[in-house]
Amino acid sequence: MTARILDGKKAAQTLRAEAAAHAARLKEQGITPSLVVVLAGDNPASAVYVRNKATAAGEAGIAARTLRFDASLSETELLGTIHELNADDTVDAILVQLPLPAHISTQRVLEAVVPAKDVDGFHPLNAGKLLQGQRGPVPCTPAGIMDLLRLEGIDPKGMRATVIGRSDIVGKPMALLLMHAHATVTIAHSRTRDLAGVCREADLLVAALGKPGLVTADFVQPGAIVIDVGINRVDSRAEVERLFGHDEKRLTEFDRKGSVLAGDCEWASVVSVASAVTPVPGGVGPLTIARLLKNTVELAESRRLSILS
Fold first, then answer.
1. Degrees to nearest 5, angle at CA 14 with 22 and 50
2. 221 included as an active-site residue
């Protein structure tokens, strides 16, 4: 068996087009959705992510700006900035780019964002709404995965789904979304006994533990659908060969760059067992930014129209 590749780039293009069309409809009512990204510190990966998010937002018709602060920013100063954005009626969505500098409490900062502008869905109130199945912003990565399943014609209803990972950003909300879609859900993690055996029971397996190549063919029920959320940089040629076999494209990339991106799945073995799988890169990653755009537009509509009424 050779798995069907679930094209995250193609799905993300559809989601971006949906967000742009929605934004255009709002502009006809005099509403331009706006997003503010708060970036503190000098994490190179964060800077790239923020730049990509701002570019995508502009292309979708969203007014986006980034507030940049160096790592010496105090927690009090950052909280003050968040409170100012909360009070600014021209701001519809606030995104605090993680990770924050070590001396700043991530929890306090995320809880300071008013729920109506919490584009990432991380505020406890929005997390509670998700738990109860109420409408509200949902963390972008799991929401984007649900969009991918919809666009690929994959209905989780009745499936046995296993999520590897229990983070507040991906694992927990992913499990809740699948449960709301009528799947029977298991949450597994690094301390799960017989992890491979638990995963083999799944019709739909979501790998979100952040360990390259953790999921091998032994974890996958023949014909299962595998969603690989992991994004890991691998800088060992032996590890690249383990993950991708004799994939000349990957080996050439490694020889040129000294590293390659890999997911949580051992691609060479998983692709031979699963019926469908997301690649890394080009799978879940593009969906996260696309869903951010949809969340922004939806927050703008919900907040602005409630003010107008």
1. 80
2. no
Does the pLDDT value for residue 291 go beyond 70? yes
Smallest CA-to-CA distance from 249 within 153, 274, 240, 40 is with: 240
pLDDT at 102: 94
Q: Identify whether the C-beta of residue 293 lies closer than 8 Å to the C-beta of residue 13.
A: no
Above 90 in pLDDT, residue 45? no
Q: Is 249 a catalytic residue?
A: no
- pLDDT-based confidence at 44, cuts 50/70/90? confident
DSSP 3-state of 65: strand
Exactly one of 92, 120, 147, 228 is catalytic; which is it?
A: 120
Identify whether 126 is part of a domain: no
97 catalytically annotated: yes
The CATH number of residue 183's host domain is: 3.40.50.720
Secondary element (H or E) of residue 237: helix 237-244
Whether 14 shows a pLDDT value over 50: the answer reads yes
Q: Is 42 a residue whose pLDDT tops 90? A: no
Domain that holds residue 232: 140-285
Q: Tell me: do 146 and 106 sit in the same domain.
A: no
DSSP string, 261-299: EE-SB-HHHHTTT-SEE--SSSSHHHHHHHHHHHHHHHH
Is a pLDDT exceeding 50 seen at residue 9?
yes
